[in-house]
Amino acid sequence: MTWRISWLAMGGLAVGLAATPAWAVYKCTAPNGSVIYQDAPCTGKGEEISLPPALVSTPPAPRHDTAPSAPAHTDTPPPAPAPAPGVVAKSQLELDADHCLDWYKPLLRDPKTAYYSNPSRNNRVVSMDLHTTNGYGGFVVLRASCEIYAGKLNETWTKEHARRAGWPVD
Predict the structure, then answer these.
(1) β-strand 35-38 against 46-51: which pairing, if any?
(2) What pTM was computed for the model?
(3) Coil, strand, or helix at residue 132?
(4) pLDDT greater at residue 75 or residue 12
(5) What 3-state DSSP class applies to 33?
(6) What CA–CA distance (Å, rounded) separates 104 from 116?
(7) What is d(CA 100, CA 93) in angstroms, rounded to the nearest whole number?
(8) CB atoms inside a 10 Å sphere around CB 25
(9) Would you kindly state where each structural domain of the chain is located, as residue ranges?
(10) What pLDDT sits at residue 107?
(11) What is the mean pLDDT of residues 71-99?
(12) pLDDT at 23 over 70
């Protein structure tokens, strides 16, 4: 994190360096000669400056003495929550392909290693390349299709798609 502080603020800083606990800030000189203030030690020329906690901006503490206000009525729905850091939100096609993969897993020799690629949709039919191991430990790619309507897998039509593709279904 880098801070740029004016000379007027530096004058106030000198006054504020009284006998209070301090936090470390580093005054660094950049290669072009400009002065930069940061919270990490300088890589080149620089010196450490101590700041009293009152001069470091911190968010205000939450107040507990007031009741929460009622949300204002709006015609627009609230925004969807953001996914957790590092988690990528899946598209509807990917969610439907996950359902399809789950349906085919009981038909596979090693369902734990199965995954899909190249999902596509044609109206209600979700198709994908299903990767799984064969009896010799190598991977094979099989075409799989499912009938999905309104986010739900249709068991009867999915069996029919599997039968037409040569899957061993009853």
Answers:
(1) unpaired
(2) 0.48
(3) strand
(4) 75
(5) coil
(6) 11
(7) 10
(8) 20
(9) 2-55, 92-164
(10) 86
(11) 74
(12) no
